[in-house]
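Comment on both lines for my students:
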Amino acid sequence: MGLVSAAVCLALVLPAFSRRRGFLRAHPFVEDFYTAEQKARVRAASATEAATGIGCFLVGCAVAVLAQKTAWLAGAAALLGAGLGILFIVHSRLMAKRCDLEAYNRSSLRVLDEADIEALDDEALGDRAREARRDRALLRLVMSASTAVGLALLFVPAFGAERWFWITWPIGGLAYGAIRAFRLLRGGA
């Protein structure tokens, strides 16, 4: 049953990612058309939704603790609270993200290949796209190295360091941030 659920999830998610990537390639740069008032309303609504999600999660936990003598009710309350909390938090993040066109423009530039970059009319935008691609490649390199180290720690018993497996990704993220900061200080973007 688990494999069927995973297959259904992948069948729903992968086409959405493909459509998003196609949209990003077709529209690599979008001018910011939201007013300051619209952005303020979205931020306020997003904060309210996130707080509601956290509240749902906490209420679910509280009901689960109070109803612990009835195991099915405690479990149901915890799952319902967690599910509603996640729903509100994810929705709030998605709604806030739609107004962040600067982040959209950065992410869309990362997916352009060299032919798409050459087709851009704006040379400065092409330079930004190439830099975004280099940053993405650097991130992939650092995180792949972190994953390799983590897997070695996990699966090589001679190291005896299984408990350190998870620390490799935060270290990889910090290393990437340090490399980016060094490049920015040095004058490269």
